[in-house]
Amino acid sequence: MKLVVLGGGESGVGTAILGKQKGFEVFLSDAGSIKEHYKNVLNGQGIEWEENQHSVDRILQADVVMKSPGIPDKVQIVKDLLSKGVKVISEIEFAFPFAKNISIGITGSNGKTTTTLLTHHVLKQAGLDIGIAGNIGDSYAQQIAENPDRAYVLELSSFQLDGIENYKPHIAIITNLSPDHLDRYNYEYQNYIDAKFRITMNQTEEDYLIYDADDVEIQKWLKNNKTKAQLVPFSLTQVLEQGAFLKDNNIIAMIKEENVTIPTNEIAIEGKHNVKNAMAATLVAQMMRVRKQTIRESLSNFDGVPHRLEKVNRVNKVLYINDSKATNVNATYFALESVNAPTIWIVGGVDKGNDYDELMSFVNEKVKAIICLGLDNEKIKQAFSSVVDVMLETASMKDAVSLASKMAEQGDTVLLSPCCASFDLFKSYEDRGDQFKEEVNKL
């Protein structure tokens, strides 16, 4: 069997390793350059690879192709493969049949990284043999090659879910839905929603789907579509018979007569959205039979996620917050909702089809100045110039932080929450966040 891997990053190299272990004839091809570290791994495993090109004839001879999540379906080589009837799948789909234990799959527009890390943290503290993969950490495929008996918590993007056929998580979580990556879905929000719900398409009556019952789009999808999974909702506004809800500032999580109570003020990470993330993690822990005391302790000693509402420093009584991971409007909505001080907001980057209207009330109420950090800031300027008096443009993090520190007064917050992808000025959202932290710590 010939396996061709498109893309020489974490998921591509992991798939190549697993494929080789399982007896496939493996060839890896990347249209760009491959990092030195990955080349060394491939050479060490005796896996053939190429970079800065695609040998089309050879690729088209594949029996199965694993496409890295960053490669869109519109790319010519993918179109050619599909028209020839070659199966093109994601790393998750390729690795899943070789896993000997369950996976917990987590998706959503926002909160999925926090929920994934939090769920993994709780289960690990309970002493379970549990790995973490997907959009985060080491590749799922490589970990299955090394530890097939482990259970895994997987953070799954819509792109990874686009490439599944048989993958089935025992427990699936959909944290929420808001327009994101619409450039990859022909600017059709419904296509993106349907991609997220692929997480439950193969689930059976023995599996569970945990979801946000306050989310209009999730409710709508569940009304109009069927899943066989047992539905387990969580909510901040309704009292539920099964699932998790709020009562007198306590999370009450109920699964089949078993309930656990957690005071919200004991949760280490702040904000309403993190109460929801904690609800989802608690429900998983209950299904995995974790002791109540362990769940409570784990939620109270969890550190949070780098680049997500990360308090960097206080300088001259001004708080600097790094929320570089906020690459869409909904994520920035949570950030602005959670700050309680006059705010200088650093925003901008590559717009993925954003509608800024839902931020208006927070911007009007809390934002005293906007610093645009992107190559094209027109849309942001048009959206907010009527409600914010001070709007400045900059094309480097150094200038953005310097301007913010000059404008900020005691008691203010400087918030980097870009709403956009980072690729115009930075390598990644991590690079953008790291540069922000570096500049703040120089002040």
Automatic annotation (TrEMBL):
Residues annotated as domain Mur ligase C-terminal: 307-419
Family to which this protein belongs: Belongs to the MurCDEF family.
Subcellular location per the Swiss-Prot or TrEMBL entry: Cytoplasm
HAMAP family per record: MurD
Pathway as given in its UniProt record: Cell wall biogenesis; peptidoglycan biosynthesis
Residues reported in the UniProt entry to bind ATP: 108-114
Name of the featured protein: UDP-N-acetylmuramoylalanine--D-glutamate ligase
UniProt keyword list: ATP-binding, Cell cycle, Cell division, Cell shape, Cell wall biogenesis/degradation, Cytoplasm, Ligase, Nucleotide-binding, Peptidoglycan synthesis
GO MF annotation list: ATP binding; UDP-N-acetylmuramoylalanine-D-glutamate ligase activity
InterPro entries per the UniProt record, alphabetical: Mur-like_cat_sf, Mur_ligase_C, Mur_ligase_C_dom_sf, Mur_ligase_cen, MurD
EC assignment: 6.3.2.9
Role summary: Cell wall formation. Catalyzes the addition of glutamate to the nucleotide precursor UDP-N-acetylmuramoyl-L-alanine (UMA).
First-level EC class: ligase
GO BP terms, alphabetized: cell division; cell wall organization; peptidoglycan biosynthetic process; regulation of cell shape
GO CC terms, sorted: cytoplasm
Naturally occurring in which organism (per UniProt): Paenimyroides tangerinum
Top-level taxon in the UniProt lineage: Bacteria
Residues covered by the Mur ligase central domain: 106-285
Main location: cytoplasm
